[in-house]
Amino acid sequence: MNVTIAGHGQHLTTHEALSGVFGSISLASWIFLLVPQLIENYRQSSADGISLAFLTVWFIGDVTNLAGALWAQLVPTVIALAVYFCFADLILITQCVYYNAKNARKAARKASTRSEDSVEQPLLGRRDSSNVGLPGSHTRRRSSAASARERRRRASSLPSLVEEDEEASQSAWLKNTLSIFGVCAVGAAGWAIAWRTGVWVPTPENDGSSSDPETPLGASILGYASAICYLGARIPQIVKNQKDRSCEGLSLLFFILSLLGNATYGAGILFHSIEKDYFLTNLPWLIGSLGTIVEDVIIFIQFRVFGIGEHSSAVEA
C-alpha cells in the first residue's frame, strides 16, 4: 500500500512511513532518556541507587559509537546525536560523582561526631548504673511498656503505610504512562513535520544495481564494541539491585524510555529493509538495541519484586 503526501508528488510506502515514525520516536526517547534520572537524583540529593559502573560502561559504548560513526562517515544527524549522547552521559556521571562525594563527606562528619560522643558514653553509663537494670525495678517495667506501645503503634500504622504506598505507585505509573504517550506523540509529530518540510526523505533500498561503499573494518569493529558495552552496561546495575534488594533511587521512567528507544530503533531498521546486506550492516546496532531489551525487562521485574525500598523498610522497622 502506498501513501501519497500532498505537495511532494512522491509515494511513501507504509513500511517506509513506519520506519520513519519508529526512528523519530526512538530519537525522542533518547533525547529525553536521562532527564528522569537527573530529576530523581536531584530530588533525593543522592545517587546511591544508580551504579557508576553501569554509567561508565554505557559512556564507553557511546564513545565507541561516536568513533564508529565518524570513521564510517555517517550522516551528520547520526554524528550529532552520538555527540549529544556523550555529553548527556557526562552530565549524569558528573551529577552522580558530585552527590556521592557530598554524601560521603556528610557521613564522615557524622561518624566523627559519634566517635567523639562515644568517649563520654561509658562515664555516663556508669553514673546511672545504680538505677538501671535492678531486678524488679520500675525503670525496666517502664521501658518494657514503652517498647510494647511502640510496637503497637508501628503495627497500627502499617495499613496506612500500605495504602500510601499503593497510591504513590498508582500515581507513578500514571505519570510514566502519560510521559510515554507524550514522547511517542512528539516523535510522530516530529517525523510528520520533517516529512512535509522535506527534511526527511525515505532512503531507497539497495536493489543491487548500485554499489554502496563498504563500511570500513575499523568502524564495524567499533560498532560491535559499542554493542558489547551496551549489553554489558546493565549487568552492574542488575547485580546492585539484587544485592541491595531495592531499586530505591532509580527512575523507572528512565528504563522505560530506554526500552522504548531500543524497541523503536530496532523496528525502524527492520521496517526499512530486511535485505541481507542491509541487515548485516546494521547488525551491531540491532544487537546493542534489541539485546538490551531483555536486561531492561529484568530490571522491571526487580522494580516489581523489590520496589523502591520504602515499604519494605517500614515493615521491617
UniProtKB/TrEMBL annotation:
Q: Which Pfam families match?
A: PQ-loop
| Catalytic activity annotation | L-histidine(out) + L-arginine(in) = L-histidine(in) + L-arginine(out)
Determine if Signal is one of this entry's keywords: no
- Entry GO MF terms: basic amino acid transmembrane transporter activity
Q: Name one GO biological process term.
A: vacuolar transmembrane transport
Instruction: Please state which protein family the record places this protein in.
Output: Belongs to the laat-1 family.
Which keywords label this protein?
Membrane, Transmembrane, Transmembrane helix
Give the organism, scientific name.
Didymosphaeria variabile
Instruction: Quote the cellular component terms of the Gene Ontology held in the record.
Output: lytic vacuole membrane
Identify the PANTHER family for this entry.
SEVEN TRANSMEMBRANE PROTEIN 1 (PTHR16201:SF44), SEVEN TRANSMEMBRANE PROTEIN 1-RELATED (PTHR16201)
Where does this chain mainly localize? membrane
Name this polypeptide is given: Vacuolar membrane PQ loop repeat protein
* Region of interest (Disordered), residue spans: 110-162
The membrane-spanning stretches of this chain are 20-39, 51-72, 78-101, 178-195, 215-232, 252-271, 283-303
Q: Where in the cell is it found?
A: Membrane
